[in-house]
Amino acid sequence: MTHSKDALLASLALSMSEAFSGPARSGKMFGGPATLWDGDEPSIAQELKKIEDGIWKKTEKRLEEIKAGSRVKDYDTELAGLEKEHAEIKASLLDVQTKLGRLGASGGEGGEIKSAGQLLVESKGFEGAKRGQRFIATAEVKALSTGAASAGVMARQPQRLAQYEVPDEPHIRDLFAQGTTQASSLVFPVRKTLTNAAAMVAELAAKPESDMTFEDRTFPVRKIAHYVKVSDELLDDAPGIQSYIDAQLIEGLRDVEDVQLLKGNGTGQNLTGVYTSAPAYTRAVAGDTLIDTFRRAMTQLRLAKYTPSGLVLNPEDWEKVQLVKGTDGHYIWVNVGTTTEPRLWGLPVRDTMALAAGEWLMGNFRRGAQIFDRMDARVEMTNTDQDDFIKNRVTILAEERLALVIYDVNAFVKNAAS
To answer: Rounded to whole angstroms, how far apart are CA atoms 323 and 326?
Structure first.
């Protein structure tokens, strides 16, 4: 046997490590069938086959000698050892395959990225609708925060700011830490005051006492939803309805979500947004440009002991920043000949219509606040609503439920009041 059992199991561990930390450096884990040895080395499957062949050959030889009635040496111990080794390696391989498949790393169905529209048109209910039956079809889009056992994690990873990539349509959700909840509201202690009395202390002297006060705040779960009615002729065009759901219904939820996460006023069915709660910018200096202002806002956050992780502003203000030119007429912050990621002073930038011109928000989004999903974005379609069945119509509904917890408003700063 070319490799020992320990070497094989070490390879399994390495493969798992690569799978859980991202695409393997070899490029084999996510771009095609997983190979557990590089180069010309045998794979785990090949090694298992060698062991199985060895067991079979020894079993055949023992049976032949028993039939011949000859006195033979005892193969039982050797066979038992082979069988045990085979079982251990096979169990380890199965465990790895299960975990990789759950993560979508094995190239199978678990790793396929499916949108809400695609999930719906592939459902059994949708197939029944195309045959003219009464139906209800449901598809749930796993949220950014789903657990490691869900394929939704592969499909919708939260943006990691250190490795920023521009989504098709940037949304504010990507900047926040993500979580899930089963409660209708969440209660968290929010810091009110902090007195830092830390000091140098002599031997045997009394230590100073710092003071930190908290108050419990309740953050309710709120629902965002909308529906449309379309003719059932659209059901004959699965790609068309899939695109419509993804581009209109799901994006419609996200657009309202952006407004709520930033400017929700906390009354009625509204969330309390971070822009609504954030302290105002206080470091203005006469003659500052907008770019100067953003740099001074970073310092305001640092003085509050937070490191900013993102900037959100209106598209018109982002345009002003990008069109700034040097004295020789060249653009300072952008190369117009190439596609560049939206950053300013190193910070990821989101331009959004959720803020008006002149409004902006900077903060440590991942430490200062967190989104908790009670129900992931879900799409339902039926022809049983009202008189849909007799009018050859279908109703398509999209909804989600979430809460926004703001741990510390001082992790944010917004434009000064005009």
So the answer is: 10
